[in-house]
Amino acid sequence: MAGLDEALDGDWAQIGERYEQRRHDRERPLLTPESLYLRPDELRERLNALPQVYLHEEAPEGAHGGSIRHPVTGLPDLRAEPAAARPLAALESLLADEAGRVLFLAETAGRRERLMERLEQADLRVPAVADWTAFVAGDAPRAITTGPLERGFRLTEAGITLIPEAALFAERASQRRRRERPERDPDTIIRDLTDLSVGAPVVHEDHGVGRYIGLQTLNVGGVDTEFLTLEYAGGDKLYVPVASLHLVSRYTGLDTEHAPLHRLGSEQWDRARRKAAERARDVAAELLDIYARRAARGGHAYHYDPEDYRRFAEQFPFEETPDQERAIAAVVNDLASEQPMDRVVCGDVGFGKTEVAMRAAFIGVQEGHQVAVMVPTTLLAQQHYQNFSDRFADWPVRVELLSRFRSKKEQNAVLADLAAGKVDIVIGTHKLLQSSVSYHNLGLVILDEEHRFGVRQKEQLKGLRASVDVLTLTATPIPRTLNMALSGMRDLSIIATPPARRLAVKTFVSEWNDALIQEACLRELHRGGQVYFLHNDVDSIERVARELTELLPDARVRIAHGQMPERELERVMLDFYHQRFNILVCTTIIESGIDVPSANTIVINRADRLGLAQLHQLRGRVGRSHHRAYAYLLAPPRRSMTADASKRLEAIAAHEDLGIGFTLASHDLEIRGAGELLGEDQSGQMQEVGFSLYTELLERAVRDIRAGREPALDRPLNQGTEVDLRIAALLPEDYLPDVHTRLVQYKRIANASDTEQLRELQVEMIDRFGLLPQPAKNLFRVTELKLAAEGLGIQRIEAGPGGGKIEFGDRPAVDPAALVRLVQEQPAVYRLEGQERLRFNRETEDADSRIREVEALLQTLGAGKPSPSDDRGAVERPARVES
Predict the structure, then answer these.
(1) 540 and 470 in one domain?
(2) What is the DSSP track for 40-103?
(3) What is the pTM of this model?
(4) Domain count of the chain?
(5) Helicase C-terminal domain: which residues (predicted)?
(6) Are 404 and 428 contacting, i.e. CB atoms less than 8 angstroms apart?
(7) Which residues, 6+ apart, have CB-to-CB distance to 65 below 8 Å?
(8) Which carries the bigger pLDDT value, residue 519 or residue 656?
(9) Other CB atoms within 10 A of residue 460 CB
(10) Domain containing residue 624
(11) Does any domain span residue 44?
(12) In 45, 185, 380, 853, which residue has its Cα 20 to 30 A from 329's Cα atom?
């Protein structure tokens, strides 16, 4: 308990200190610490009065009467075999031999529901009980509850067997959620409606840009249905059923005030969409020309010794995160293919992008190719040189640096050796692109923070991309990079999983306040840390340093900016790294600077003058270790700032989660106006139809041109299948009262691409909001039907109490023989109306029987397709057929 005592006393002292600093402000009266917290001695007293439990594997010597023994035995291997005829055969065998009682455990309520469904598939019906106590008190031979049990066992004396979900199925709910959060699909991050507020612009693919008003429940044909309400020019309203939310996406391109507002029923939207489709077609053709030139020229397929690569990878001192592993695998695959690589790896500062680059460099060097690592600043070049030198120290690889920190003689020697092929990896700034630099056999270029390079350098890089492999590392991809990646011309990997024990940076936006600055700096210095104080004006930086020295007389303050002599700047940065002083007053030169793990507070003065990508990068300077880090963004009053600056600060403060760089880049798209894909023009058709729809049009144009088809400019985008079963399929208000949360869930359900995603969503919703009411279950089942019908090329399904009809698209993927057989064998039930409609007459009074009827029909029409894996017989979505 000694550690606890120290922590209590330390925290209490800190609370008292903060109270003393702030209690004199009359405008913000504070409560005393005693009225908010228990004093340390009171807390100890209360803790000591509680019963205390000590756990031992063996009974400790001299154990008194309070000890309880529970003899246990382990369980055999009960893992399910999905491919077998009876997947749970091992469990069935155990239960057949088990005379005692059995309790199944799942980690959450959502996992419990899923486990019950899986057990039911094996004809094992088990009732749910509240908890362990309820099970012991009851007499049910078998039951299921929630509890965090890792491995199963049998209590031999009590005759009770405990079987956790993990013993039956390889996947572990919490483990998967914790370590392998679903990969952040770049497309989804931009297209979802998470940030939507009332009055925000949204795009409906058929009707254009309107404003979101809210959700509304209407009774249609005796059935309650929830609609998204959109308002268009002239106050016209459009009600979009939640089942059609896949047609609605957030508008990104201009801010809310300047976003277009279309008129319903006019040709305005059709014209805008056609113009955008034409522009997308031209851009696609140009992009594909670049792409084709790369493909025709062909790249180099790298071959490497797997054993050497394994040894190099094992020297990485940390455990790779799942996202990092995926990014590394993607880069290795790119290098092994004949196609020149052009991949963007987007990950927050300190998430392990450099290791991805090092693995790529290792493979490049193994075949005798040279690798150029290009960075925006001399300081970052120095750090990369140090890191690469350390990482390749045990290998016959020569790493060199071309930078201002080297003398002219040293630079000339490196250039000569580079041309002669004696240097394997060269690190430097954009000087590496100059004509005076010649390579012996350049194979791979690694770009760090491409958005910091100028237009001319980017044009030089564009020429380079056709002939060598290019890997771009970035924390916040600028819109143009983002657009290229999303349109599939450059491959994109997102590293969104933080390293173990990494905490998010707490971000505060405030006006200049001496007390706040003093408290922020002192809190960091008292825990032995260091502070960056960013003031991006060289003329007044010394005055600010003097003011800080007066505010913090015990602090050791130094200055760093880009106009200092190079040697002096390098010495200041190294002194800061070695903790020879504790507050660095600096300009944005630290944006791509060296890592200082002990610096965990950054104060940014006049943050309103910095771009979003810059703010994100600067905030990433702190929080590089397992300590909680703080960022204070100082700005003038809101009325003195531009609207864009205000939005940037709101965006950075709202997104302090780890791995949020990609979402910030999508905000950047809105704030600056989405960039055109080719050239530097910042306006265009994209602003008229919105970023999401423009990228969809572009994707389709690219697909058509690749397939040798002329893009059909007037063809609507994929509309999805309409399913109307005249049943209540919604998230009831009494289940999910918050309108915004309900909207986000609707959009996620509508955007699910397969039944597995739907199941995960179902589990998540049960865990978050409780067991699903019947209308919500119907919503999931109808969405599954929709997915299955889409794969079969069906446009619309209608069904009511007495039957219904199915309408086919232009090129349905149904089995013709199965369709003919249906009509011939049951003419009283099934009837074809022309080529595009199948009508059926069958009584289905309740929702369940109606859904089962349509499921069975889709399964028959999709004969020869993969059989359904869902316990309710929903059809697994077949491979999509491109029309």
Answers:
(1) no
(2) HHHHHHHHHHS------SSPPTT--TT-----EEE-------TTSSSTTHHHHHHHHH--SEEE
(3) 0.58
(4) 5
(5) 516-675
(6) no
(7) none
(8) 519
(9) 15
(10) 506-657
(11) yes
(12) 380
Domain boundary among 21, 41, 69: 69
User: 451-466, pLDDT tens digit by residue?
Assistant: 667 667 766 766 666 6
Q: pLDDT (tens digit, 9 = 90+) per residue, 362-414?
A: 999 998 899 999 988 787 888 889 889 989 998 999 999 998 778 888 899 99
Q: How many CA atoms lie less than 13 Å away from 392 in the CB half-sphere?
A: 24
> How far is Cα 326 from Cα 302, in angstroms, rounded to an integer?
19
Residue 153 bridge partners (DSSP)? 74, 162
- Which of 637, 657, 677 marks a domain boundary? 657
pLDDT of residue 675: 47
* SS3 annotation, 462-530: HHHHCCCEEEEEECCCCHHHHHHHHCCCCEEEEECCCCCCCCCCEEEEECCCHHHHHHHHHHHHHCCCE
* Phi/psi at 624 (5° precision): -85, 0
Residue that is written with structure tokens 């039951």 in the block:
143
- Same domain, residue pair 424 and 485: yes
**3-state DSSP call for residue 182?**
coil
Spatial distance between the Cα atoms of 126 and 140, rounded to a whole number of angstroms: 9
CATH code of residue 776: 3.90.1150.50
CATH number at residue 113: 3.40.50.11140
In 3D space, the residue among 174, 154, 149 whose CA is nearest the CA of residue 164 turns out to be: 149
Q: Locate tokens 């491979």: which residue? A: 879
Q: In this predicted structure, what is the pLDDT of residue 684?
A: 54
- Cα 657 to Cα 496: distance, rounded to the nearest angstrom: 10
How many other C-beta atoms are found inside a 10 Å radius of the C-beta of residue 271?
11
User: Alpha carbon 806 to chain centroid distance?
Assistant: 37
Packing angle, helices 479-486 and 661-672, rounded to 10: 110
What per-residue confidence (pLDDT) applies to 432? 86
Q: Where are the alpha helices (DSSP H) in 717-799?
A: 739-751, 755-769, 774-791
> Cα-Cα-Cα-Cα dihedral of 481, 482, 487, 490, to 10°?
50
3-state secondary structure of 448: strand
Cα–Cα dist 591/428, whole Å: 17
Hey, what amino acid is at 635?
A
Residues 119 and 62 in one domain: no
CA-to-CA distance for 175 and 257, rounded, in angstroms?
44
Structure tokens at 654: 């709202």
User: CA 130, CA 136: separation in Å to the nearest integer?
Assistant: 11
Please name the helix (run of DSSP H) or strand (run of DSSP E) that holds residue 600, with its range, or none: strand 599-605
Per-residue burial over 177-193, b if 16 or more Cβ lie within 10 Å, else e, is: beeeeeebebeebbbbb
395 Cβ contact partners less than 8 Å away, ≥ 6 residues apart? 312, 362
Q: Are residues 777 and 765 in the same domain?
A: yes
Take residue 139 and report the two structure tokens written for it: 């007499």
User: In this structure, are residues 425 and 373 in contact, taking their beta carbons and an 8 Å threshold?
Assistant: yes
Is residue 163 classed as helix, strand or coil in its secondary structure? strand
Residue 372 near residue 464, CB atoms below 8 Å: no
The helix or strand, by DSSP H or E, that contains position 164, with its residue range, turns out to be: strand 160-164
Q: What is the pLDDT of residue 652?
A: 82
At 135, is the pLDDT very low, low, confident or very high (cuts 50, 70, 90)? very high
What distance in Å separates the CA atoms of residue 340 and residue 370, rounded to the nearest whole number?
15
Asked if residue 145 and residue 59 are part of one domain, the reply reads no
Residues 649 and 513 in one domain: yes
pLDDT class for 478, splitting at 50, 70, 90? low
Task: Please name which of 863, 806, 814 lies closest in space to residue 834, comparing C-alpha atoms.
Answer: 806
- Shared domain for 583 and 648, answered yes or no, is yes
In this prediction, residue 732 carries a pLDDT of 92
Considering the domain boundaries, does residue 679 fall inside one? no
Q: Name residue 457's amino acid.
A: Q
Cβ atoms within 10 Å, residue 475:
25
Q: Is residue 715 part of a domain?
A: no
Identify the three-state secondary structure at position 605.
Answer: strand
For the segment 221-272, what is each residue's pLDDT rounded down to a tens digit? 788 888 999 999 999 999 998 888 888 887 876 767 778 899 998 888 888 8
Q: Is residue 41 domain-shared with residue 138, that is, in the same domain?
A: no
The answer as to whether 537 is a domain residue is: yes
